[in-house]
Amino acid sequence: MSPNKGILHSYKNYLPVTSATPMLTLHEGDTPLIHLPTLSEEWGVNLYVKTEGVNPTGSFKDRGMVMAVAKAKEAGSKAIICASTGNTSAAAAAYGSRAGLRTIVVIPAGKVALGKLAQASMYGAEVFEIEGNFDQALDMVRDVSEKEDVTLVNSVNPYRVEGQKTSAFEICDALGTAPDVLCIPVGNAGNITSYGKGFKEYDVARGTGQPQLFGFEAEGAAAIVQNQVVREPETLATAIRIGNPASWWAALETVKQVGGGFDAVKDEEIVAAYRGLAKAEGVFAEPASCASLAGLKKKIANGEIKKGSTVACVLTGNGLKDPAAALDTNDIEPIRIPNETETFLSHLHRKEGV
Ligand code: F0G
Predict the structure, then answer these.
(1) Which of 6, 190, 215, 275 has CB atoms 3.0–4.6 Å from 186's, for a disulfide?
(2) Which of 61, 62, 84, 87 to mutate to test the pocket of ligand 1 (most atoms within 8 A of CB)?
(3) Which positions in this protein are listed as binding pyridoxal 5'-phosphate (predicted)?
């Protein structure tokens, strides 16, 4: 098997890569598409998850960021800027440092998972936090990028969408065709737009077909579903705590073309999917990622997704990003024991089968 040289190399024919583009990489992409036997059986579908948390900084953002940062570098930019609920800032900081660019990130104070904050600091970004939400942070960085010589690397940067579409190619390569259905969490709505573009381009190039696209917002931040801006978005899935998605119209148009739709899932449903996935299948994804699975369950129950379908759910970020969410939603505590084998054994024997 040839080693993964990163998406700019693997997919240069599908990306805006020119002879002047620096071949930046942290070996992103080529993430596993994992079959879930237990949930497939339980839900009556043929279910796969695309584990984007395996990327270098632990989320799908690496695919878009490598492209956006390479193009910024190619254009002679010296600095990049983004607003973020956490993952974008981690990816921008990593690729920014790799490319030797100044990286500036703006985040909502108190609403970014610990792992993501640690990443942005470690990679050397200049981190600003505001007493506001992601939408307000995005307004600020958009404004600054117009006034100053700094490249905006949020998903409104078209190169981000380009890079992120490569995950759709990989799903088609792994399955031989597109799945019947793709389920994906929605925050700023850039990623669902990327997948739509990717499946479409691969279908034109290789006849792989296009899946129905189902996007899931958190109920407390469901602007697209409610068809109105949510001024004060709230959800435990902080990555998608967004009330005014920047790619709202592009995402609606994308879904209109292939069928599917948008729906909202409750935090309780997200948590149930989050815990169930880890326990039943050994896959640990961050809460926002599990909106895709929670949504799938809902759509199978109401008949909108047919039993027997081949479904890919995108797990956008690694569970380790947000250890607090894992501990807060789990009542299993370590059992404290003295340093003695006999007591240890007596505890083990209390549980059947050990
Ligand atoms: N899942 C995770 C783990 C995310 O971090 C995000 C977005 C999404 C899903 C939604 O993707 O915005 O393209 O619809 N995170 C952004 C950030 C907003 O700043 O890290 P989207």
Answers:
(1) 215
(2) 87
(3) 87, 187-191, 316
> In ligand 1, which atom is closest to the CA atom of 242?
18
Sheet holding 181-185, edge to edge: 33-35, 46-51, 310-315, 181-185, 212-218, 260-265
pLDDT in tens, 58-89: 999 999 999 999 999 999 999 999 999 999 99
Let me know whether 265 and 168 are in one domain. Answer: yes
Ligand 1 contacts CB of residue 187 (under 6 A): yes
Q: Are residues 22 and 94 in the same domain?
A: no
Cβ(322) – ligand 1 distance below 6 Å: no
59 CA closest ligand 1 atom index: 3
Confidence of residue 234 (pLDDT cuts 50, 70, 90): very high
Residues with Cβ < 8 Å from 108, sequence gap 6 or more?
Answer: 85, 129, 130, 132, 133, 134, 136, 137, 241
Answer whether residue 194 shows pLDDT above 70: yes
Q: Report the complex ipTM.
A: 0.99
Task: For residue 47, give both structure tokens.
Answer: 């279910």
Assign residue 31 the CATH number of its domain. Answer: 3.40.50.1100
3-state secondary structure 16-36: CCCCCCCCCCCCCCCCCEEEC
Asked if residue 175 and residue 301 are part of one domain, the reply reads: yes
Assess whether 39 and 182 both reside in one domain.
Answer: yes
In a shared domain, residues 35 and 111: no
**Residue 223 lies in domain:** 7-59+158-328
Per residue in 22-31, pLDDT tens? 999 999 999 9
Both 222 and 318 in a single domain? yes
